[in-house]
Amino acid sequence: MNFPVRAITLDLDDTLWPFAPIGARIEQVLHAWMLEHSPPTAARFPIEAMRALREQVFAEHPQLIHDLSELRRLTLRRALQESGADPALLEPAYEIFYAARNQVECYPDSLAALERIAARVPVAAVTNGNADLERIGLSRHFWFQLGAREHGAAKPEASIFHAACQRLGVPHFEVLHVGDHIEMDVIGAAQAGLRSCWINREAQTWTHPTLRPDLEFTDLTALADWLDATHLHNTEHAAA
């Protein structure tokens, strides 16, 4: 399929890097920190109990689903309170979490493909997560990063896609949103009037009965190849 793409909005977690190793590292690092700085909290909330507490806090505050940082702080605050720990440990504990959260290992294809894509069109990160591209060291590839917390609503809400398009200065139908999640990324972008690209690394089966992604690739290299081919086609067509 060939259509004009003047800008790209790009998901981060499970698109540029896998999140599961990050989540596992966060749990280990936080538990080790609690063992050293708040042993009663570590005893009351070992890894599985802290995970259950986090899920409980998330369920109790659906209005904060766009703000994962605040939900994490609420979880840590509850853990400290229920274990009788010093509440002043909240911010140091959060910083330990956030440092681990931003230790990412990109998929093997991601960085080279991202460089190629960013050389073709402006790229903006649009994410429900709380990764920080500055801390990770990838911000140079992006025009900006728009997070759900900053925006006030999370994907698949149309408003976050529209806000990104407005900042890019490109009409919705000429922006390609790229992500791994069927509902949050592909369906959300399509319903917001953007083009959609599904990065389907795990060979998932498409489930939506009516909507389909405009593009589907197994990695970002294939998207970079498609952009190169499309650009060449458009250039040849313009010269004809």
Short note summarizing the structure:
The chain has 240 residues and is an alpha/beta fold. It folds into 2 domains: 7-17 and 106-239, 3-Layer(aba) Sandwich (Rossmann fold); 20-101, Four Helix Bundle (Hemerythrin (Met), subunit A).
Report what the structure shows:
There is one protein chain. By secondary structure, this protein is an alpha/beta fold. It folds into two domains: 7-17 and 106-239, Rossmann fold (3-Layer(aba) Sandwich), CATH 3.40.50.1000; 20-101, Four Helix Bundle (Hemerythrin (Met), subunit A) (Up-down Bundle), CATH 1.20.120.1600. The protein contains eleven helices and six strands. The chain has helices at residues 20-37, 39-44, 47-60, 68-82, 90-101, 110-120, 133-136, 148-151, 158-168, 182-191, 220-239, and strands at residues 7-10, 123-127, 144-147, 175-179, 195-199, 215-217. Strands 3-2-1-4-5-6 form a six-stranded parallel beta sheet, sandwiched between helices. Helix 4 crosses helix 5 (90-101). The chain starts with 6 loop residues before the first strand and ends with a helix. Residues 235-240 have low confidence and may be disordered.
Assign the CATH class of the largest domain. Answer: Alpha Beta
Low-confidence stretches: 235-240
Question: For the report, how would you describe the main beta sheet?
Answer: 6 strands, parallel
**What is the CATH third-level topology name of the largest domain?**
Rossmann fold
Overall pLDDT metric: 95
CATH homologous superfamily identity of the largest domain: HAD superfamily/HAD-like
Rg is: 20 Å
Pfam families: Hydrolase
Organism: Pseudoxanthomonas sacheonensis
Keywords: Hydrolase
Protein name: Hydrolase of the HAD superfamily
